[in-house]
Amino acid sequence: MVEVAGSTPVGPTTSGSRKCPLQRTGCRLRQHNTFRWIKRPLVRVTTARGSPHVRHRHVRAALRHALGLDGRTTLLSVGRLVPLKGYHEVIAALPALPGFQLMIAGDGPERGALAALAARLGVADRVRLLGAVAHARLPDLYGAADALVLASAREGWPNVVLEAMACGTPV
């Protein structure tokens, strides 16, 4: 099921149609009962077990408050703390991004090295190593983050990308 929230986008397109490409796609999907246009701000997340979680946009502020996040742009990375995941690359970029903070959910052998790198670069106050996080709690982290960062060296299409997108978090 594809659900789109917000007002219906209508305007001229390159094909001359007044419907936007999303609406045209929605019309095709609607024929198969897989599309619904919702006219209120809402995000529907379906977990791997199939239980739907419905979140209104105002919930994002509550999630951020509960996690102690300030007004800075929050980046999120999720996964095992191993060199292949490239967390050191994201931390190394933080000095050039003064208005950003990073949350990393996961545990592994690189935890100490990543904390040391953040301290050495002077960004330890903007890096939060959350440790192992229960899978059921991940939608709250995705919902609170402004974007998911994936800096892996050799991953194709990991589940973390699909999960973030399902929660409406840009990747």
Largest sheet geometry: 4 strands, parallel
The total beta strand count reads 8
The overall pLDDT, averaged over residues, is 75
Number of helices: 6
Order of SSEs, N→C?
EHEEEHEHEHEHEH
User: In angstroms, what separates the terminal alpha carbons?
Assistant: 21 Å
> Could you name the ranges where pLDDT drops below 50 across 5 or more consecutive residues?
1-54
Determine the oligomeric state from the structure.
single chain
What structural category characterises the helix and strand content?
Answer: alpha/beta
Across the major sheet, the strand order is 7-6-5-8
Shape: globular
Helix content: 25-40%
- What is the beta-strand fraction? 15-25%
Provide the gyration radius in Å: 19 Å
Write a structural description.
The structure is a single chain. By secondary structure, this protein is an alpha/beta fold. The chain is built from 6 helices and 8 strands. It has helices at 21-30, 58-66, 87-93, 111-120, 138-144, 159-166; strands at 2-5, 35-38, 43-46, 52-55, 73-78, 100-105, 127-131, 147-148. A 4-stranded parallel sheet has the order 7-6-5-8, with helices on both faces. A two-stranded parallel sheet has the order 1-2. The longest helix has 10 residues, at 21-30.
Secondary structure elements and pairings:
Blueprint: E1 2-5, H1 21-30, E2 35-38, E3 43-46, E4 52-55, H2 58-66, E5 73-78, H3 87-93, E6 100-105, H4 111-120, E7 127-131, H5 138-144, E8 147-148, H6 159-166
Helix pairs in contact: 2-5
